Amino acid sequence: MARLAALTTLLALLCSVTCCQAEGYGYGYPGSGGGYPSPRPTPPAPTPSGAGLAVGFYRDACPNAEAIVRDVVEKAVEQNPGVGAGLIRMLFHDCFVQGCDASVLLDPTAANSQPEKLSPPNSPSLRGFEVIDAAKAALEAACPGTVSCADIVAFAGRDASAVLSDGRADFDMPAGRRDGRVSSANDALQFLPPPSFNLSELAANFAAKGLDANDLVVLSGAHTVGRSHCSSFVGDGRLNASTSDMNPALAASLRSQCPANPTAANDPTVVQDVVTPSKLDSQYYKNVLNRNVLFTSDAALLKSGQTAAAVVRNAFVPGLWEQKFAKAMVKMASIEVKTGANGEIRRNCRVVN
Q1: Would you call the peptide bond into 174 cis, given omega within 30 degrees of 0 as the criterion?
Q2: Which residues are known catalytic residues?
Q3: Residue-wise pLDDT tens digits, 295-316
Q4: Which terminus in the chain has less CB density within 10 A, N or C?
């Protein structure tokens, strides 16, 4: 409680010098008023958005592209919110390896037996591949050879965010990505940050992809939805009562759910947010402050003044995190994209053409 009080005081001091006003922190959000946002209007004329991408990229070539993806995603997430969490995570795991090029979707082949999706950070935990397949099939029926798998992953991450947040985190996603032809399990191990990373390791990992400490804090908030395998945190000593800073009540609950030594045959999953496990919201930041988080990388956000202050703002300024999450998702989805002749548009998202 002393830490929470100190951080709350820090937020007040920060806002007293116009930090909150200068950054335009409002209390509203797109689709406010409750419920899922109303259908999107006619796609806008393409608007350049950096990295060779544009909002409304498919307006002429496939006018219903985004609506088709959203329909598939909305139905899947309403049936199983965990799939939505998987689709958000899939965008992150795709973009941090080879850039946002759908390389995470490629299946093993005789020529490449170890693609990204079989790497330990992705297998067996990454979910939502069947949703991407369904969206691609619908798009190929409507507009053959037009919409890249990389753009489908980006749209799906955006749409899952909108559904899980009841429209509070809904945003335009620029498109125009091409699909990559390279996928390596070793690359996934090299570039995806493990949950055991400390703050300096996390910051360096994100900086290598053009993302700053603010992006790190904001994107970590996606841990407010989804589940985690016990093996992701048990081995890091997070449940050790004598050394961990985890809330003792949460640690005791997790010890009752997780084996002391998880194996491939015995590795249960637990919710990442014990308060609102199926809702994309700012509860994660209150959990960080109350030490109710699973990973070392979550707890690490309180290890510097800059990131701790950001945690407090996201926890207590209504609507702030959703606004920043939308911007950070778009920024992340532009990492090392392939456009034009640098990639292809796969006919099947699981194999190169």
Answers
A1: no
A2: 93
A3: 999 999 999 999 999 999 999 9
A4: N
